[in-house]
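Q: Hi! First time doing this. I have a protein sequence and I read that you can turn it into a structure. Is that right? Here it is:
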Amino acid sequence: MRCPYCNHAETQVVETRESDDGGVIRRRRRCTHCDKRFTTYERAEIAFPAVVKKDGSRVEFDAAKLRASMLLALRKRPVGTEQVDAALERIHDKLLAGGAREVSSARLGELLMRELKRLDKVAYVRFASVYRSFEDVDEFRQLIRDI
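A: Yes, that's right. Below is the predicted 3D structure, encoded as structure tokens:
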């Protein structure tokens, strides 16, 4: 680890602490050259699969975009933040458990719709009406009947 003050390559770990949940390790370090102290944090890096869009392009998975889509569908609905967080966590778990390096945007949309259906039927219909690009009212009626 390089010293952020003098850029020297050698530092010494003075103290190591693990967070309460065990997800982060905090290390106090001392530079052997300038003797200044600084803190570093270590956490596991989770690699989500790349998202393959309809046009075939690939983009990095964006958890904020997924959250924004869910919150837009849930706007002015009686669903708590904890419920939204739990639903997003279930989607993340499914993506990671699958072990795939890529996931289609269609699959991601289906996972989101499944969670919205569990949380709030109105939010589910809102999202599905945009996501599935209904051409006429009959398709919309059929979706509502299926609920």
